[in-house]
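Long-time lurker. I teach an intro course on protein structure, and each term I like to show students one example going from raw sequence to a predicted 3D structure in token notation. This year I'd like something fresh instead of my usual example. Would anyone be willing to generate the tokens for the chain below so I can use it in lecture? Attribution to the forum is fine with me.
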Amino acid sequence: MLPPLFDRFRIVRKPLAQRTNRVTVARDLVEPTQAPHPLSAAASAAVAEVAVWLRDARASKRPAILATGAHAIKNGLAPVLVALMEKGWITHLATNGAGIIHDWELAWLGETSEHVQRNIEKGEFGTWEETGFHINLALAVGAFEGCGYGESVGKMIETEGLDIPASETLESIARTALASDPARAAAAADLLGIVRRFSLKPGRLEIPHRWKPTSVQAAAFRLGVPFTSHPMFGHDIIYTHPMSCGAAIGRAAERDFLAFVASVSALEGGVYLSIGSAVMSPMIFEKALSMARNVARQEGRSLVRHRIAVVDLAKSAWDWTRGEPSEDHPDYYLRFNKSFHRMGGTLRYLSLDNRDFLLALWRTLEE
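-- Reply from a regular --
Happy to contribute to a lecture. Here you go:
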């Protein structure tokens, strides 16, 4: 007998504007011209080395991929990330589901980052109407249109709205495409269910984003830079909303993963920056690199001359250029370093705040 399912329609959802937040655009946005905190000589040398890597990679038209957890967004670093894309230093951005949410909330509300413990005690954590409604709807529409996760939300922010197909149109596509294109038929059926369940009117749904210039996703969509999201089910607050559609999320996220693998496939001579992501970044990179090498081997190509810079706050006493530490060494359990070390290439680990690293890197590249 299957277990019963929780009914998300029973949840009382409140307007996002009623939420007290810890991060605001007005106070916490970090401009590229802002100076980082003073760095040690070793940290400065490491940043300078990464800057040389990026110059070499871009001069030879090789990729420069930046993967980050949500904190880089939440720390107000969107203007720095946008500047790096605009100048061509970064060719692909990747984040987790929370990074997408923080970026959207900052663009729509100008604030983000709720008080988790306080709201969990009241049963209100993550139960905010606009975040769940707009992001889930953008993903369902984007999956129907053939877009990826980050692209779907970035497009909504940049164009400040969504195009909602008529129920009759979706039903027709779901029926007629079933024989020739089952995936499109399924995407149409998923969106049809949402349109009917929430009585959505066909046509343009205008969604103004007052703080759109702060959005990394919108800038990536505008610039044509891949911005991929790599979520995990149940990790993000959009799953509390009854509009959440696992099939649509899966389609968009799978497209993003394959786009990420395509970028990694060209990484010979390129650079991979992993900033503040102890789980998502090393996990998707190791699968992507293995897939890319599988095909490269068949084509007689190598994929070994890449450079990886890992940035996190955790201290590391191990020199990763010496190889992997033994199991009795504490650094053996810095999983992200161990995972990246096993992927070959050149690895550098920088124990730095992501704000200081990105600001120092931007300043070095501009100099």
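Some talking points for your students: The chain has a mean pLDDT of 95. Residues 82 and 219 are 6 Å apart (CA to CA).
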